[in-house]
Amino acid sequence: MPIAPLPPSSLPLLAPQSRLDGGIALGPETPGLGANEGQSAFQSLFEATIGKTNASLADAETQAQAFAEGKTDDIHGTMIAVSEADIQFRLLGTMKNKIVDAFYELWRMQI
Amino acid sequence: MLGAFSAMDIAASGLTAQRTRMNTIASNLANARTTKTEDGTAYRRIDPLFTTVALDHQGGITGERGVSKVGVERLVRDARQGMMVHDPKHPDADAKGYVEYPNIEVVEEMVNMITASRAYEAGVSTIESVKAMAHSALEIG
Fold it and tell me: Would residue B93 count as lying in a domain?
């Protein structure tokens, strides 16, 4: 099954309208912190990483398929595309683990 | 700025260049006794001519501009005269009865082949090292 590249704005999970945002937002009267700015920067970073990873995976898939079908004989090009996709995906996984860790850290916080 | 995967791209260009070189060596060895090409003369050995290729995105650190990929500019024909053998009954013999055989030394081509395959291995080692670096960077934290 081919993987289509993901547009960066199509992720509903971390959208500003989510309940998480309403719960944590410090309010407009809090000066200097720029909570919304920080969140949108983080969100765009995460979205960009997901988009890049998806593009890498799609590229690797296209090249591997072309190689399997005999349309190209670029062995090392295919292997490098697959390796790049592998590294990108591992980076995404590491980022996800960090975010989940941070969430549980907040969850366990004594109030 | 050179990205994380630039080294991989550069090494990949080296692999492609060495693969082209291997193709020319295969052609030279296959035609080591070819006395007639399309233009009627004996086959003469071909060599790839390598040239630097600029990376797509450059700038940043001073001196980074010198970092470049490799590409095959064109294939050049070795103009050296081949061995002339007196053989009047050969269909490709000239008026004096001499046949020109290709200017190919099989031993020389074997040496080039070893060089090409070692250079390819070096490129693959570079890629492996870049991958290992990326994996160990992911261990941070």
Answer: no
